[in-house]
Design a protein that fits this description.
The structure is a single chain. The chain is an alpha+beta fold. The chain has helices at about 10-40, 95-100, 115-120, 120-125, 140-145, and strands spanning about 45-50, 60-65, 80, 85-90, 105-115, 135-140, 150. The protein has a domain at about 45-150: Sandwich (Immunoglobulin-like). It contains 5 helices and 7 strands; from the N terminus they run αββββαβααβαβ.
Length: about 150
């Protein structure tokens, strides 16, 4: 019924090495899974909403330099919100971490008319302070408005 197979010493070593190697891979995968499972994911609920109730598109950026409310020297990455629509601005980490990055515990949201940004250079916009509105908000302010900024 059963047939005996003879294996040479070299083949035994090769099989033995393969078994040990496979066992080591299993250990590495197991340890990696434990390490990955132990990492807490960032607070993905860290966002606020900006509502544009105007009949024109607006652009905005978020600054961390309050009480210095000067427009930044280099043109930032501005995000556009179309007329009568909204957008969610998100950040990684917790709200406390976000506000700890600021000088005075406030963020500034600078609102611009998108047409102004296309008509004028950034230097002129900055020098003439050509903003539509600026919101300076601490964490308590954001909680009070339920993390929603409405323009106008």
């Amino acid at each position: 019924m059963y047939q005996t197979i003879q294996i040479s010493t070299m083949e035994r070593k090769r099989i033995s090495t393969s078994v040990v190697y496979f066992s080591e891979i299993k250990k590495i995968v197991f340890i990696s899974m434990i390490l990955l499972a132990s990492c807490a994911p960032p607070d993905i609920q860290h966002y606020f909403k900006i509502i544009n109730n105007s009949n024109y598109s607006i652009s905005y950026y978020v600054g961390n330099s309050y009480p210095d409310t000067v427009i930044v020297q280099s043109k930032p990455d501005l995000k556009i919100i179309q007329a009568n629509s909204s957008i969610k601005e998100s950040h990684w980490g917790t709200w406390e971490e976000r506000y700890n990055e600021t000088k005075e515990g406030k963020i500034s949201v600078f609102i611009f008319n998108t047409d102004t940004l296309s008509k004028y250079c950034w230097e002129e916009i900055r020098d003439k302070y050509m903003i539509l509105h600026r919101f300076d908000l601490g964490l308590k302010d954001m909680e009070r408005c339920e993390f929603t900024i409405t323009y106008p």
